[in-house]
From TrEMBL:
This is Ras-domain-containing protein. Protein transport. Probably involved in vesicular traffic. It comes from Basidiobolus meristosporus CBS 931.73. Its main location: membrane. It holds the Pfam family Ras. InterPro entries: P-loop_NTPase, Small_GTP-bd, Small_GTPase, Small_GTPase_Rab. Keywords: Cell membrane, GTP-binding, Lipoprotein, Membrane, Nucleotide-binding, Prenylation, Protein transport, Transport. SUPFAM superfamilies: P-loop containing nucleoside triphosphate hydrolases. It is a lipid-anchor. One of its GO terms (molecular function) is GTPase activity. CDD domains: Rab8_Rab10_Rab13_like (cd01867). Belongs to the small GTPase superfamily. Rab family.
């Protein structure tokens, strides 16, 4: 029986507590939103399969806790990630400034060359916005990554953020395979395993939630 997808891509959502990581994931995976604040405990994940440039891509998206006490749990998942979504809250300057610290964590724990995107969430709250789009773009340019403003509540930019990151990952991994073709014949190459090391095991601490 053939798989229902062509490639498996694993993404990791990181950022301060309360920036809306779980809400973004809920909007993208289930097209729903809840205003309730339920803190993610440890790590959770959801799956969505998308059509991307003629291929079926299964996205396995891991949602991490932003609190310091869970940092040792979440860093264990960096190595299995093919893409990192760095989320901050455009109404919270501290969460924006902390993006640099999160990027340091990525550099320390994730695979070299892992694709990244910076996401400024809650862009619908115009009257409380303290981080401008230009500031977000400048930070993204500094680290040579994409920047997208989103609103999980109003469903603004969410699809763009995940699709653009998935497309970048797909291109990178296929380019890597073209540069280093497998020596054995008769078997295809799994984007999820041969190009990116260890598979992320689902040892979750029972976590749901929205921020």
């Amino acid at each position: 029986m053939s798989a229902s997808y062509d490639h498996l891509i694993k993404l990791l959502l990181i950022g301060d507590s309360g920036v809306g990581k779980s809400c973004l994931l809920l909007r993208f995976s289930d097209d729903s939103f809840t205003p309730s604040f339920i803190t993610t405990i440890g790590i959770d994940f959801k799956i969505r399969t998308i059509d991307l440039d003629g291929k079926r891509i299964k996205l396995q998206i891991w949602d991490t806790a932003g609190q310091e006490r869970f940092r040792t749990i979440t860093t264990a998942y960096y190595r299995g990630a093919m893409g990192i979504v760095l989320v901050f809250d455009v109404t919270d300057e501290r969460s924006f400034n902390n993006v640099r610290n999160w990027i340091k964590n990525v550099e320390q724990h994730a695979h070299e060359g892992v694709n990244k995107i910076i996401v400024g969430n809650k862009c619908d709250i115009e009257d409380k916005k303290v981080v401008t789009k230009d500031q977000g773009l400048a930070l993204a340019e500094e680290f040579e990554v994409r920047y997208v403003e989103t609103s999980a509540k109003s469903n603004i930019g969410v699809e763009e953020a995940f699709f653009s990151l998935a497309r970048d990952i797909k291109k990178r991994l296929i380019d890597n395979m073209d540069a280093n073709p497998p020596s054995s014949q008769g078997r295809g190459v799994e984007l999820s395993s041969t190009t990116n090391g260890n598979y992320m095991k689902s040892s979750c601490s029972g976590c749901v939630g929205s921020k």
